[in-house]
Amino acid sequence: LCQLQASRLENLRVKLENEGLVNISYFIVNHQGTYSRKKINRLEESVSNYITVYQQDEQQADVWITLNGNKDDFLIYDRCGRLVYHLGLPYSFLTLPYVEESIKIAYCENKCGNCSYTEPDIDGVCENITKKADEKLEEVEPTPSGQHSHHQNLRRHRHHH
After folding, report:
1. How large is the C-alpha radius of gyration of the chain?
2. Of 31, 40, 51, 160, most Cβ neighbours within 10 A?
3. What are the coiled-coil residue ranges (predicted)?
């Protein structure tokens, strides 16, 4: 994860927290290579203390190989620790909406049922997110005037494990 992508992750973290999505854990796993190891201080400076930057030891098994991923991937887990999304390039670029939308879906879907990790006011937060998404769609989608309306669906890469 480069410094620019890290600072964008910090901005996304703040945005989501301001929208009411709280108690989300963010981790950056730095590559094992010498170049990446030398740049870890800059990487850590790109984010707040709310995002953990983890430096892999050169002697350990590469985390990305263990997770069947690549260094620029985003792995989104639900509150129960289950992998909900695994986004690779180009879907992991934070200038695109996929990571943000995946986090929101993982946060709001209640797949694991009632548990102690659920925020008390999650329903209100998620209702607002859904309403804002619907309003954006209404702004973007042209109203058909005798023509066929073409809807584009957000392509999601879901991996259940």
Report:
1. 18
2. 31
3. none
Cα–Cα distance for residue pair 12/114, rounded to 1 Å: 27
* pLDDT tens track for 30-80: 988 888 899 999 999 999 999 999 999 888 999 999 999 998 999 999 888
Nearest of 6, 104, 116 to residue 53 by alpha carbon:
6
> What residues contact 67, with CB distance under 8 A and at least 6 apart?
73, 75
Q: What is the 3-state secondary structure (H, E, C) of 51-105?
A: EEEEECCCCCCCHHHHCCCCCCCEEEECCCCCEEEEECCCCCCCCCCHHHHHHHH
Is residue 161's pLDDT more than 60?
A: no
